[in-house]
Every structure is written in C-alpha cells, then in structure tokens.
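Long-time lurker. I teach an intro course on protein structure, and each term I like to show students one example going from raw sequence to a predicted 3D structure in token notation. This year I'd like something fresh instead of my usual example. Would anyone be willing to generate the tokens for the chain below so I can use it in lecture? Attribution to the forum is fine with me.
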Amino acid sequence: MAENEENIETAANESAPKARSSQATGKTGRAHRSQKVGTVASDKMQKTVVVRVDRLVRHTKYRRYVRRTSKFMAHDELGATVGDRVRIVETRPLSARKRWRVVEIVQKAAK
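-- Reply from a regular --
Happy to contribute to a lecture. Here you go:
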C-alpha cells in the first residue's frame, strides 16, 4: 500500500507543470525581439549601416501586391558593405535614430 502511494506521488510530481526560473532555462526573461532581413543601402557611417527592408502589401482596393520599403539604421560590428543581405534584430535605443543591430550577414554582395 505504501508503494502505491509513493508511485502516485511521483507520478503527480512528474505530471505537474513546473515553474520555470530564468536561471534554470538559461534565458534572461527578455521579450521576443523582432527580426528583419534586408539589403544594406549605405555604409558611409562608422559602425552604422542603413538597411532597406522590402515587404509586399496587398492593396485594399485593387487587391494587387504593392512593394513597400522601409529604411532602418542599424549598428554594425560585422563590417557589412553596400548590397549585402543582412539580418537585423531590434535592440535598445543606441542613438536618436538607431534601434536595430546587425546580427548576421546572410549573403555578401557580388563584386
């Protein structure tokens, strides 16, 4: 009878949802940061690039897809050049207009 109670207790402990702590999972509790992939339009600044991100938006009246372009200033420690495809991630404000950071160069520009 005691063995059955122990089995029930261990089964209940295993099936119960465990509270996740930030130290146990290795995460810092940070919110999900949005990522975008775009093309470097300008690299004339020091450690900063301008990334052009294109997206397709459906026109409300004509139901056709229209290309919309946004430009983001991103902090660049990797040394991306004009024409490179890069992945940028949202970060804290680094300057008045810079809130993105280059995390990887997806494809280098053709020479």
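Some talking points for your students: The beta strands are 35-45, 48-58, 65-75, 85-90, 98-107. Residues 58 and 65 are 4 Å apart (CA to CA).
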